[in-house]
Specification:
- With about 525 residues, the chain is of the alpha+beta class.
- It has 3 domains: about 1-45, no CATH class; about 75-315, Dbl homology (DH) domain (Dbl Homology Domain, Chain A), CATH 1.20.900; about 330-500, Roll (PH-domain like), CATH 2.30.29.
- The protein is about 50% helix and about 10% strand.
- It has 18 helices and 11 strands.
- The radius of gyration is 32 Å and the shape is extended.
- Residues about 1-55, about 395-400 and about 510-514 have low confidence and may be disordered.
């Protein structure tokens, strides 16, 4: 027995009472309509019934108005309180002149001091104009709004990662450099020198590179998360308010978020500049070793980013690629229901494992069948080719959270995931050593309306063709790219297999009697 008089949904059994204006529904529909999640969920993007929109516009307008009022109460502290604030735009000569310090008569030493000064002023700019703006204007404002129960679902870590740690580390580095520079210009002895080696060693061999690595690993996901958030009205108002602050210097949030990546890659250049202008051999060795450590940190980061991106991508591929059972894949095979348990398929997790293989190329093509053209999506791995049929969910039931999606996925796959669709495997994977690709001349297929066509053949171990796919690319260039990618992949796979065979037959432990 269900009764919801206010929503005009009535199911009254037995007796079947009907009232004017009531909506008659089946038992299953009544269960669905009266589900507590449906009745209580205020975050649903698309209301189920037109009359449920009553009052939504007013509530939304009030929420936006309250958010704007809350933002108007936010106060941003001035950045001018830092002792080094006024130094970032000065030259080394101007600083010496201000402190009545005579410049050294050694030209090489002066050039070294100027190189250290460039490291210091650029770090000041990085801290004041980028990190501090991100923290004080964007992150702290978002924290303030969340204490007032606005934008509660926005994840601070996914957007800003370890910005707090990065800001503290950079501030410590700036203050340490400022300290040795102040000691030098305040010293009465002309022969005193900048003791910068200890500062460089402490920070570059300490937390400076590590904190940047942590931030950079999250960067691509943060940018993708930001793009999904910008579609929201409330986040758009917050973002516009922050970016209009004069301390942003007309920089937008994406331009500020990329600053730590740019800074990390600039450190080796600044250190190299100091190394080139140093004359003491022991000092040069120390600076060079620090520079090498920073460069190694960047190389490690590139490897981590590639590995992490590859891992995330394969995780999404495992979710989106559907492997139909044998009897669904090929109607020639009849398998009684009582025997289907025998044909237990290997799980897709084993086939699509990021530790076993790499995705070399992918894209959308058209497959010519006997009576129709079919949209297909091809995945070229380092050891096989996979032909799949894209299936979109027309009802668009939600799909994955776009903020959680892997940024390196192609727009076509992103659209499929958002719509809750899938890529169904059309045939078994084609091993590259069993694959033949042939270009098709327009003369042979133009009568069928095919252009930019090429043929994929799957051969068995006896070199008999067991499957063939006549594919059409959007342009001639795309066709040539696909054929080149497949040909290169086949060549690389063949060479790797030959290398494995050679190493197998040349094992030192192999018995001569075998």
């Amino acid at each position: 027995f269900y009764e919801h008089r206010r929503s005009s949904v009535v199911l009254n059994l037995p007796g079947l009472e009907v009232f004017p204006g009531d909506l008659l529904v089946s038992d299953g529909a009544a269960d669905y309509l009266c589900h507590p999640l449906l009745l209580l969920n205020s975050e649903s993007k698309k209301p189920r019934w037109p009359f449920s929109k009553r009052g939504v516009g007013k509530d939304k307008h009030k929420h936006i108005s309250d958010l704007e009022n809350c933002l108007s109460s936010v106060k941003i502290t001035s950045f001018r309180g830092y002792d080094f604030y006024g130094l970032k735009d000065k030259t080394w000569d101007e600083v010496l002149e201000t402190h009545h310090k005579l410049p050294t008569d050694q030209l090489d030493l002066k050039k070294q001091q100027e190189a250290v000064w460039e490291l210091f002023t650029s770090e000041c700019t990085y801290f004041l104009d980028h990190l501090l703006v991100l923290k004080m204007i964007f992150m702290n404002t978002l924290k303030y709004l969340q204490t007032r129960e606005y934008l509660l679902d926005v994840d601070l870590w996914r957007l800003f990662a370890n910005l707090e740690e990065l800001t503290q580390t950079s501030l410590g580095f700036v203050n340490s450099l400022f300290g040795i520079i102040k000691d030098y210009v305040d010293a009465s002895e002309i022969s005193s020198s900048l003791d910068f080696i200890s500062v460089l060693t402490k920070y570059f061999r300490g937390s400076l590179c590590q904190s940047h690595q942590t931030y950079c690993l999250n960067y691509s996901a943060a940018i993708f998360y930001l793009e999904s958030l910008r579609q929201r009205d409330d986040f758009g108002i917050y973002l516009k308010w922050c970016e209009q602050n004069e301390q942003c210097r007309r920089l937008h949030l994406p331009e500020l978020l990329v600053a730590p990546l740019q800074r990390l890659t600039r450190y080796p250049l600044l250190l190299k500049n100091i190394w080139k202008r140093s004359m003491d051999s022991a000092e040069k060795i120390m600076i060079y070793s620090i520079k090498e450590k920073v460069e190694k940190s960047i190389r490690d980061l590139e490897g981590k980013v590639k590995w992490l991106d590859n891992f995330q991508k394969f995780r999404y591929l495992q979710e989106i690629i559907v492997w139909p059972p044998l009897w669904d894949r090929d109607k020639r095979f009849f398998i009684p229901e009582c025997l289907k348990h025998i044909f237990k398929e290997h799980t897709a997790e084993n086939i699509l494992s990021p530790t076993n293989r790499h995705l070399l190329y992918e894209g959308k093509l058209t497959l010519a069948e006997s009576t129709r053209f079919l949209d297909v999506y091809l995945f070229l791995f380092n050891d096989f080719l996979l032909v799949t049929k894209t299936k979109r969910n027309k009802k668009k039931l939600g799909g994955s959270d776009p903020g959680l999606m892997c940024p390196s996925l192609t727009p076509e796959l992103q659209a499929v995931i958002k719509e809750g669709g899938s890529c169904t495997v059309l045939d078994q994977p084609i091993p590259l050593d069993r694959l033949v690709v042939k270009s098709i001349e327009p003369l042979h297929v133009s009568v069928f309306g095919l252009r930019n066509a090429f043929l994929i053949q799957h051969e068995n171990r006896y070199r008999q063709c067991i499957a063939a796919f006549l594919l059409q690319a959007q342009t001639e260039n795309i066709k040539k790219t696909w054929m080149a990618q497949i040909t290169t992949a086949i060549s690389c796979f063949t060479k790797s297999q030959e290398t494995k065979k050679i190493s197998l037959f040349t094992l030192p432990a192999e018995s001569s009697e075998i």
